[in-house]
Amino acid sequence: MLKVENLSVRFGNITVLKDISFILKKGEILGVVGESGSGKSITSLSLMGLLPTQANIESGSAQIVFSDVESLDLLSLDEKRFQAIRGRRIAMIFQEPLTCLNPSMRCGKQLLEAVLLNSHFKGTPTKKRCIELLEEMQLPNPEKVYRSYPHELSGGQKQRVMIAMALSGNPELLIADEPTTALDVTVQKGLIQLLKSLRDKYQMGMIFISHDLGLIKEIADRVIILQNGKIVEQGVAKQIFESPQNPYTKGLLACKPPISYKPNRLLTVEDFINGNIGENEVEPEITTSRVKDILLYSVKNVITSFSTKKNIWGKSIAQFRAVDNVTLALYEGETLGIVGESGSGKTTLGRTLLNLIKSQSGSVLYKGVNLSQMDRKFSTQFRRDVQLIFQDPYSSLNPRKTVGQAISEPLKVHGICRNEKDRKSKVFELLSNVALPPDSYYRYPHEFSGGQRQRIVIARALAVNPKIIICDEIVSALDVSVQAQVLNLLKDIKDQLNLTLVFISHDLAVVKYISDRIIVLKNGILVESGTPDEIFNHPKTEYTKKLIDSIPGITRF
């Protein structure tokens, strides 16, 4: 149904796609894999006729032939003719539903607009069609979702609304561009099953773009691997995963933390390309997480709630318990992993530990001092000792400040270093510690990749010589290769500086690799805790088993 031949795309003098050729058959799912910047999204935008104005498709032998009902060369169509195809015959699900949905419009109105534009439904039947689409997306209470604003839905529900909008015109070809990035493993699994059932029901072709090879393995019939705008390998999914030929493909497969064993270090793509694989030691099974018996945090019966309804005098009359009666301890030198689905209370617990959110009952003690009773002097020391790395490094960096200024700021606030010269020297040392070049000091956040920005915020957190770093979903949106580099970096820094880490994530493979001890949260309640091997090999609750069963794809390479 789709044939792409010799597709090349340039931005000025830079070629971002070079001689891309592939085919897609009716009812087939084609997986497109590669790191950020490999050309995955540019390929999909070329198929949709949505390339930015500064992009140029090189003419000559380039063709994109779409031929389910009639043969059309998409490159020869003007915008008016493309509009008749886009949304109706070829539809797309974008990566971030929150930015694609209008926050000021109810979801039903946005879906209604798509149905009116892309289908034959008019007048009263359009609402009925919208409800049918939401039911098909297996959304609970479709009528409520129809009336809801995007912020009232979870990430997985928003993504299902986006899929419903894409299917409003019964397209023959569906392009899914990273539709499950940053979603929980259970939500990911549900979306994958939904997309496969829709493919079977409508016999449509599908292009599924992702940097997660585990997801690609679960959904794709055939796979193409992109590197720097070129296809380096393509073939049947089973063949690609069982016997990859290209070093780049082997590297991508090896970057993902395995479940069945724990290597000393994660291999990276560069290791395979440069041939620096060697023997990778397997770490022994962890029997105790305590490096030292020095108790840093003692949390007892903590309840953290948020008001969901207030009366006319502003008094709370209904509350939601985000953290419900949690008790835990954190010892010096260990890495504590916190896992659970969205809404399980992971981030709220992390911010309660930081005293950024006040608990309603229970106690949080740091070095024996209750955080609710700190004096000013201890509070200043606590702010130095416990640092937070946010999920999105770009939004947590000031775009108007250079990297040097961003990392220098905590040094100034806490009075570390005697003068500007010493601060500058310290920043250069921190940049070196996180493997960034010295000239990064003078550059702005937008000049760096996602992985590099994550290194910058790690350097900023390290600036005040903390004892504990709380990492909140810091690798969830990164490529597997960049994720491996950041995880290796964290392990190195932890060992060098004797840090204690609290690692919050929905990716169980990552948590198993980095953690000494894991706690599992469900609806704010701590349902299970233990060493990684205990949690993964002998889970005690059905919820933990469900989380482990939802991990996509590859467990051993």
Radius of gyration: 25 Å
Strand order of the largest sheet: 7-8-9-3-10-11
Low-confidence sequence ranges:
none
Q: Determine the structural class based on helices, strands and strand pairing.
A: alpha/beta
Count of individual helical segments: 21
Number of β-strand runs: 21
Give the distance, in angstroms, between the N- and C-terminal Cα atoms: 34 Å
Question: How would a crystallographer describe the biggest sheet?
Answer: 6 strands, mixed
Could you tell me the mean pLDDT?
A: 88
Question: Could you tell me the strand content as a percent range?
Answer: 15-25%
Helix content: 25-40%
Shape: globular
Brief characterization of the structure:
With 557 residues, the chain is α/β, with parallel strands linked by helices. β12 and β13 (316-331) form a beta hairpin. α4 runs parallel beside α7 (155-166), α5 packs across α7 and α15 packs across α16.
Write the layout of secondary structure elements.
Elements: E1 2-11, E2 14-24, E3 29-33, H1 40-48, E4 55-57, E5 63-66, E6 72-73, H2 79-85, E7 90-93, H3 97-100, H4 107-118, H5 125-136, H6 142-147, H7 155-166, E8 173-177, H8 185-202, E9 205-210, H9 213-219, E10 222-227, E11 230-236, H10 237-242, H11 247-255, H12 269-273, E12 295-310, E13 316-331, E14 335-339, H13 346-353, E15 361-366, E16 369-370, H14 376-385, E17 386-389, H15 403-413, H16 420-433, H17 450-462, E18 468-472, H18 480-497, E19 500-504, H19 508-514, E20 517-522, E21 525-530, H20 532-537, H21 542-549
Parallel strand pairs: 3-9, 3-10, 7-8, 8-9, 14-19, 14-20, 17-18, 18-19
Antiparallel strand pairs: 1-2, 1-4, 1-5, 5-6, 10-11, 12-13, 12-15, 15-16, 20-21
